[in-house]
Amino acid sequence: MPISDLIEKELTRAKNTAYRYLSFRPRSRAEIEAKLRDKEFDEAIVAAVLVDLVRLGYVNDEQFARAWARGRIRLRGFGRRRIGQELRSKGVAPEIIRESLAEVFGETSETETAMHVAEKKLRTMQHVEPEARKRRLAGLLERKGYAFEVIREVLNTIRKAK
Known about the structure:
Helices cover about 80% and strands about 0% of the residues. By secondary structure, it is mostly helical.
């Protein structure tokens, strides 16, 4: 078999691996690159596949970051810090993370999201002492990635409502 046929066959195998990986959920460029490297594809093959995926629009870190952030806010109630950490772990560039978070939290206030999370949790804590409830809410919001200022504002709002 000629070398060009072997290269073409390896390129097709790498593309199929990437397509299969993308079929589960959108991925960042770094995630796909790591997956192809784990499968021990040659660097030139990996680069060619990534160029092709970007050209076809299957990989776009800006769109990925915005979609990831919106999903984490809507489904998990995560804050800016937690989403930023997740995107960094997925290999998204810091400037893309900053832009995406600014855009997404421009649409939805981080304080409103934190308030929604806190109100939902409060429904399950009716019989808990007020101080313990406050500590638990603060801990929950901190784990979800909210800044201290946001947590303080939410706790003050809840205290005034009681």
